[in-house]
Amino acid sequence: MSHLLKVENLQVSFKTYGGEVQAVRNVSFHVDQGEVVAIVGESGSGKSVTVQTVMGLIPIPPGKIKGGKITFSGKDITNLSKREMRKLKGSEIGMVFQDPMTSLNPTMKIGKQIAEGLIKHQKLSKAEAKQKAIELLKLVGIPNAAERYNQYPHEFSGGMRQRVVIAIALACAPKLLIADEPTTALDVTIQAQILDLMKDLQRRMNTAIILITHDLGVVAEMAQRVIVMYGGIVVETGTVFDIFERPKHPYTWGLLESIPKPDVKEKKRLIPIEGSPPDLFSPPKGCPFAPRCKYAMEICVEKMPGEFKISNEHIAKCWLNDPRAPQVEALIAAGRE
Amino acid sequence: MSVEILQVENVKKHFKIGPNQTVKSVDGISFSIKKGETFGLVGESGSGKSTLGKTIVGLYSATSGRVSFDGHEFGDLDKKTQKKLNREMQMIFQDPHASLNPRMRVEDIIAEGIDAHRLAKGKERQELVYHLLERVGLRPEHAQRFPHEFSGGQRQRIGIARALAVKPKFIVADEPISALDVSIQAQVINLLEDLKHEENLTYLFIAHDLGMVKHISDRIGVMYLGKMMELTTSSQLFEEPLHPYTEALLSAIPLPNPRLAKKRERIILSGDPPSPVNPPSGCRFRTRCPYAMDICAKAEPSWKEVKENHWTACHLYSK
């Protein structure tokens, strides 16, 4: 089976006064029909730039796709013209952004903003589009949809606005939904509502979702597969169980250890990842995590690790997985007991 | 051991926003914090937790009610005592990008309190700043730099150093980690915990990340629309939440464990929190409460100690 979205060796950089920022360096991943893939990483890890490149949203210049290939539904979309990209964006790929306060047009009625895409891409008449927009508002759980159709964004709460944004993204029944930190700006109880809604819609419409987040709880809840990014590269990828239960990269270990576990009773000191994220102006030639890694070896600074295949879907870019490396996991496990 | 350092009695803070409209951000809250404890305050946006924190340190003056710190009641203090209290209560803010003056050097930012309270001058002042920088994990050479030269985590460390500079007894930390990356959050939390032990501090820790609040707090208070809903020890709150709002809030935390997360049944609250301008009659949570009864609309539930050290305001527990 061919993948719905395939990204191969993507390299994206930005020209700035300080020099060239290599935001994404050789990133490869794929998304299949109907699955939820989470991309986790800190600010500056390249996760947002990666998906914005997929959507054709990075400004060129200063941005530049220096290499790689993006295939969607078997079609190369790396260098589509603006017009072709716009066609694809409205109808086959939908996007939900972090901040529901700024992703809606404040001077336009909610209903019109949903109907806009339907008229443009599905060639519906105004009346049909209105009908469909009201249905969509109901679908995303907005009460009194017909009345709400004629209201403006400022009359909606944050959670409600995010529902509207989801309705717009789903209007043309896209095959892929890209959600960039969709719940970060929301309160926990509202976050639970939105995650629930996304899960439900994904099941009903069989839409694939790329979920970008830094909240590991949200990842565990939503994703089937996880991509961990750091310093512009994918450091580890695998199923959600691979990543949470048998992670093979020290950065992933660090992430999991630095958050408190709500289900564990006794209080333990958190184990932070010391240091700060790398400078992408002149990324190290070796592993970008090496300067913060407790287990870094000489080779880590010298040479970028290759992809070590742990199992069919589980890949880690870390020299510790080389058969010649010390078996630190056994040592850590022994240390815990 | 359990000497109360801070007492809050029936504190209200209302803001007038129009001729006939007031936002009742904090509407009658009472609790106390013991010396050496970390008290966590959780709630969603609009619950009034930050307003309460600012009222406690005196950045807002309360509309009514009493705040007393270390035996002194706010309001009618002589200037000298007021100044002493201002020094002893410090605050750490949420946004490390907005809380440091971009035109000031780090040295002057940290020493602002030292100067205002005339604690040190010249060489001594400089040494104090260097010492503080080292205490929070920065280096003395950072003193001459400006805030924009630092990352978010480092700026938050500068904010902590500034609070520590005047040797406070009590620190209100208002969402000190929510603007930071996950791997940096743990660094700041550990720093706060270390400083607490070394300096004998008492914290009021305000946050919406329940996992972190549980980790750092001894006791936790849960706020909703300006009212305290439940208050107990952090382990008790997570094991046996009494108030339906707390129950829903806990079930809304995404668990970083895929097996548990995919199995459990969540309580999904319907709707949004009502506006604090016009809160519901009776219990404020009743419009979203899965167990709401007739009485909840009529009478406001009283604040009761249902179990030892476990307080809540809910009609389910009134006999």
From TrEMBL, chain A:
Its main location: membrane. Keywords: ATP-binding, Cell membrane, Membrane, Nucleotide-binding, Transport. The keyword Membrane applies. It is found in: Cell membrane. It comes from the Bacteria. The keyword Membrane applies. Residues 5-256 form the ABC transporter domain. It is a peripheral membrane protein. InterPro entries: AAA+_ATPase (IPR003593), ABC_Ni/Peptide_Import (IPR050388), ABC_transporter-like_ATP-bd (IPR003439), ABC_transporter-like_CS (IPR017871), Oligopep_ABC_C (IPR013563), P-loop_NTPase (IPR027417). GO terms for cellular component: plasma membrane. SUPFAM superfamilies: P-loop containing nucleoside triphosphate hydrolases. GO terms for molecular function: ATP binding; ATP hydrolysis activity. One of its GO terms (biological process) is peptide transport. PANTHER family: DIPEPTIDE TRANSPORT ATP-BINDING PROTEIN DPPD, OLIGOPEPTIDE TRANSPORT ATP-BINDING PROTEIN APPD. Belongs to the ABC transporter superfamily. This is Oligopeptide transport system ATP-binding protein.
From TrEMBL, chain B:
Residues 6-250 form the ABC transporter domain. It comes from Thermaerobacillus caldiproteolyticus. Belongs to the ABC transporter superfamily. The keyword RNA-binding does not apply. SUPFAM superfamilies: P-loop containing nucleoside triphosphate hydrolases (SSF52540). NCBIfam families: oligo_HPY. PANTHER family: D,D-DIPEPTIDE TRANSPORT ATP-BINDING PROTEIN DDPF-RELATED, TRANSPORT ATP-BINDING PROTEIN. The keyword Nucleotide-binding applies. One of its GO terms (molecular function) is ATP hydrolysis activity. InterPro entries: AAA+_ATPase (IPR003593), ABC_transp_ATP-bind (IPR050319), ABC_transporter-like_ATP-bd (IPR003439), ABC_transporter-like_CS (IPR017871), Oligopep_ABC_C (IPR013563), P-loop_NTPase (IPR027417). Keywords: ATP-binding, Nucleotide-binding, Transport. Pfam families: ABC_tran, oligo_HPY. It comes from the Bacteria. This is Peptide/nickel transport system ATP-binding protein/oligopeptide transport system ATP-binding protein. GO terms for biological process: peptide transport; transmembrane transport.
